[in-house]
Task: inverse folding
């Protein structure tokens, strides 16, 4: 035995240690992506990244947003810093309802629940509707973080095939007749990741299928205001066949700033109440001061004029990308020309693997997101998502010249 003097003062007596429980099994349903590690390298300033799905920070209306916060803190600071109702700031809900109504979807403030980004709306809806093993239909490819949310709930996600215009109504019909689906999730306008927009006839067909087969439609629309050409297509929520079963999700992330974490959902009363209860458990309510500032901004500033500025900048960037793609991509590649949003969807020819090529592209100091992880059916290895929003037209040109080097064999 050691003499007492040689025992370090900070030593603790050894007690038996039982390992703490492992993380919940629901985490096993949600994979982490190896692509994320490669993309972490693209944070280097020398990399021209077409990977992020970010709005351009230089276009944030910093002065207008600062003025809105200052005004709120001047006029009603104690209210703005206090707890508040789960449903959300009445002024903000009234302003959002007016915007939706002006765009052809009659909406009252009480039809809306303010959420902490539209991402939270997805979580709340999943909590409210999806049983473990319940069937969720999605467009294939699909927005990744929606797949994560459904995965956490233990949903059985069933992909519905798409073409260049989005979901195929015949395929939806066939799948919905054999699966008892809880909901269909889709981004009908300027989809993430493909930039595709679902035409009106197909929206009507989706609404009719939901009515016929009895499933909810979750219509996620964070990009609809970012239209550069063509005409607005009415929301699925405005099709009468599915008015009682469509939830519309909106967001301030792409039109104001994502750091505000403000979104909303518009849902029939029963489901909205269920989401309110789910939200109480999640975060009580969305930040009071952020909601008040957004409401103030909508009152004092001209959001539509601001969005018009963003639209013309993004249109120019999209056009620069479309102009540079033919020279950058290997012969036989295909891509779309989206009328809005943030993304162009590229399919490289047979034999090219966008995931395998990413480290080579990063070596040339350019990045993109491989398309494969967005698929829940059979992935297309040649698919890639290119975002055109965060670089100037000149940087996009340069980035595409670098990208071209990645395909040299
Ligand atoms: N849905 C889609 C289709 C998205 O692309 C995003 C964000 N990129 C979200 C929802 C989440 O947006 P928010 O910032 O409003 O949570």
Result:
């Amino acid at each position: 035995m050691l003499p007492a003097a040689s025992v370090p003062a900070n030593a603790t007596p050894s007690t038996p240690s039982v390992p703490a429980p492992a993380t919940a099994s629901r985490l096993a349903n949600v994979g982490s992506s190896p692509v994320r590690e490669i993309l972490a390298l693209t944070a280097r300033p020398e990399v021209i990244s077409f990977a992020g799905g970010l709005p351009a920070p230089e276009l944030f209306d910093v002065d207008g947003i600062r003025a809105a916060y200052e005004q709120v803190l001047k006029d009603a600071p104690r209210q703005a810093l206090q707890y508040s109702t789960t449903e959300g700031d009445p002024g903000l809900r009234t302003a959002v309802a007016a915007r939706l109504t002006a765009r052809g979807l009659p909406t009252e403030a009480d039809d809306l629940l303010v959420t902490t980004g539209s991402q939270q709306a997805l979580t709340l809806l999943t909590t409210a509707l999806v049983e473990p093993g319940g069937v969720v239909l999605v467009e294939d490819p699909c927005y990744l973080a929606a797949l994560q949310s459904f995965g956490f709930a233990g949903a059985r996600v069933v992909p519905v095939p798409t073409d260049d215009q989005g979901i195929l109504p015949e395929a939806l019909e066939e799948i919905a007749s054999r699966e008892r689906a809880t909901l269909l999730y889709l981004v009908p306008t300027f989809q993430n990741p493909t930039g595709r927009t679902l035409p009106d006839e197909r929206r009507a067909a989706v609404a009719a299928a939901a009515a016929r087969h009895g499933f909810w439609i979750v219509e996620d629309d964070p990009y609809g205001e970012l239209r550069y050409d063509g005409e607005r297509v009415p929301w699925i929520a405005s099709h009468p066949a599915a008015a009682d079963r469509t939830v519309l999700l909106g967001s301030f992330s792409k039109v104001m700033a994502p750091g505000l974490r403000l979104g909303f959902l518009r849902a029939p009363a029963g489901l909205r109440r269920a989401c309110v209860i789910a939200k109480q458990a999640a975060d009580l309510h969305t930040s009071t001061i952020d909601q008040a500032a957004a409401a103030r901004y909508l009152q004092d500033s001209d959001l539509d004029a601001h969005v018009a500025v963003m639209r013309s900048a993004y249109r120019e960037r999209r056009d620069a990308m479309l102009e540079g793609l033919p020279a950058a991509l290997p012969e036989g590649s295909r891509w779309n020309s989206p009328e809005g949003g943030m993304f162009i969807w590229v399919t490289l020819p047979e034999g090219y693997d966008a995931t395998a090529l990413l480290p080579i592209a990063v070596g040339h100091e350019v990045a993109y997101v491989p398309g494969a992880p967005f698929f829940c059916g059979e992935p297309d290895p040649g698919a890639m998502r290119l975002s055109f929003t965060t670089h100037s037209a000149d940087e996009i040109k340069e980035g595409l010249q670098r990208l071209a080097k990645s395909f040299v064999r």
